[in-house]
Amino acid sequence: MIENKTNKTNNKYLIYTILIFIAFISIYYFSVVYTLSMEDNKFMYRTWSWVEYLITLFAIIVIIKKFDKLRFKYIGVGLILISINFLSFHQRTDLKTAIIGSFVTLIGFVGGCLLTGNENRNKSLFKNLNIKALPKAFLLGILIAIPFALLNFIYFRLTIGTVQYMNVFKAALLALEPGISEEIIFRFFIMNAIFTLLDNRIKKKYIVFISFFFGIVPHSLIHFSELWISNVSAAFFMLITTSLLFGLPMAYLQYKKDLETAITFHWFIDFIRFIGGY
Fold first, then answer.
1. What is the extent of the structural domain holding 194?
2. Which residues 6+ apart lie within 8 Å of 28 measured at CB?
3. Which pLDDT tens digit goes with each residue over 251-275?
4. pLDDT recorded at residue 171
5. What is the value of pTM for the model shown?
6. Per-residue pLDDT, 201
7. Is position 101 within any domain?
8. Is 59 within the bounds of a domain?
9. Is the pLDDT of residue 120 over 90?
10. pLDDT, position 9
11. Is residue 99 a part of any domain in this protein?
12. Cβ-proximal residues to 46 (8 Å cutoff; 6+ apart), any chain
């Protein structure tokens, strides 16, 4: 009797993860349909924004439910991160969008901090104020990213063509925002949320697989929502390649190392791409 009750409870939490993915797909689909009706070609912008708002809603729910565990250092460190994020983001967008994007990142970071702490979680050196370990994380992230960055650069060189070199310092600054915000919102918070939801409900290996899926696939999909309209086979190809070559290493680094190593890995790949003007 007890075993049946436990199985029903575990199944309930698995259903929750399915419902979360359905919510993502629904937002994804309606953003594409709405953009088609608007005829303004803002596919990626809308998909990205709407999905981020959905994740922010989940993060706010986490913060409310775990408010008693909220620490000032989470907010303090988060404010430092979003200040850097804002300086980078505002270089390529308007003030309102930069403020909203930075707020979303802050909520995702605080929510992620409230869900981390156990061994089977994505960790953050910033959250633990482990400043001494940061140089090692930064160096490791760059070293691991080198072959991926070169591969990414070659892809854009072959598909887009002529290099339009950007100032190195500007490229470094612009690459900070995607590295910080995307790793926090789409992996640090989301993966920790899945770990928390399924912890002790199913076997650890399945929890890891599901959390990796949520930390990889949605982030890959929002990069090319319009491609599903024009070329489905190309969209599948992009989904598989971007998930395996970029999403998987970033999710793995967050899980096995920490948020900061993944941010540096992500930053370096975009930095090299931006230098080429891509």
1. 2-118+133-275
2. 47, 50, 51, 218, 221, 222, 225
3. 999 999 999 999 999 999 999 999 9
4. 97
5. 0.94
6. 87
7. yes
8. yes
9. no
10. 63
11. yes
12. 31, 34, 35
Helix 204-221 crosses helix 248-256 at what angle (to 10 degrees)? 140
172-214 pLDDT, tens digit each: 999 999 999 999 999 999 999 999 999 988 899 999 999 999 9
CB atoms within 10 A of CB 189: 29
CB atoms under 10 Å from CB of 40, counted, come to 10
Q: In Å, what is the CA distance from 20 to each residue of 25, 212, 248?
A: 9, 14, 20
18-29 CB burial, b ≥16 within 10 A, e <16: eebeeebeebbe
Burial of 97 (0-12, 13-18, 19+ CB in 10 A): middle
Residue 128 lies in a domain: no
Question: What are the tokens at 151?
Answer: 């591969």
CA angle 192-198-201, nearest 5°?
Answer: 150
Into how many domains does the chain fold?
Answer: 1
Q: What is the DSSP-derived secondary structure letter of residue 246?
A: I
Residue 2 has pLDDT above 70, yes or no: no
Binned at pLDDT 50, 70 and 90, residue 14 comes out as: confident
Residues 6+ apart with CB under 8 A from 180: 81, 82, 84, 85, 88, 105, 263, 267
Gyration radius from the chain CA atoms: 19
**Residue type (1 letter), 227:** L
Asked if 212 contacts 248 with a C-beta cutoff of 8 angstroms, the reply is: yes
What distance in Å separates the CA atoms of residue 272 and residue 149, rounded to the nearest whole number?
A: 6
Q: How many CB atoms lie under 10 A from the CB of residue 231?
A: 13
